[in-house]
Amino acid sequence: MERARRGDAAAFGLLMRKHAPLVRRVLTNRLGKTDALDDLAQETWLHVYTGLPGLRETGRFAAWLQGIVLNVARLWLREQRAHARLSEALTREGAERARVPSSTAAFCSSVEAMVTAREEQNALFAAMETLPRRRVRRHDSATGTGCRTRRSRSGWAYR
């Protein structure tokens, strides 16, 4: 145990072989037969390897290991439930989209055009921000010449 804690790979391998049945048993009891068992066992051993130097009571290694296995299983179950909820929501959304009238296609193309226009506007504003700041003479309403411009945080404003 002490050699494994100090990073000895051979000692850690022996530790793995000795306790691998415990890891498989806890995962199988908690999750049943699943294709993810090997991946979860590997993830468990990764947590053990990184956490082993911090283990204070080496005599309680099996209990510590079992706690890690249970946490890995809980996280996996939580991810599976979240994935199932997301899949269900996407399936429901897909069914709702199938019932949408064909006028939606025109709306979507106009939204795409608006997004494209906004992106072009943002690119223009970014280019304008690189221009040097300067004032232009005031607009003379009598002659119709000149204008006063100022740069603001959100872009250019014209008066």
Walk me through the structure:
The structure is a single chain. The protein has 159 residues and is mainly alpha-helical. It has a domain at 2-97: Rna Polymerase Sigma Factor, Chain: A (Orthogonal Bundle), CATH 1.10.1740. Helices cover 67% and strands 5% of the residues. The chain is built from 5 helices and 2 strands; from the N terminus they run αααααββ. The protein has helices at residues 2-5, 9-31, 37-51, 61-98, 103-129, and strands at residues 149-152, 155-158. The protein is elongated. The N and C termini lie far apart (78 Å).
What's this entry about, in short?
This protein is mainly alpha-helical. It contains 5 helices and 2 strands; from the N terminus they run αααααββ. The chain starts with a helix and ends with a strand.
Which characteristics define this entry?
159 residues, mainly alpha, Rna Polymerase Sigma Factor, Chain: A, 5 helices, disordered C terminus
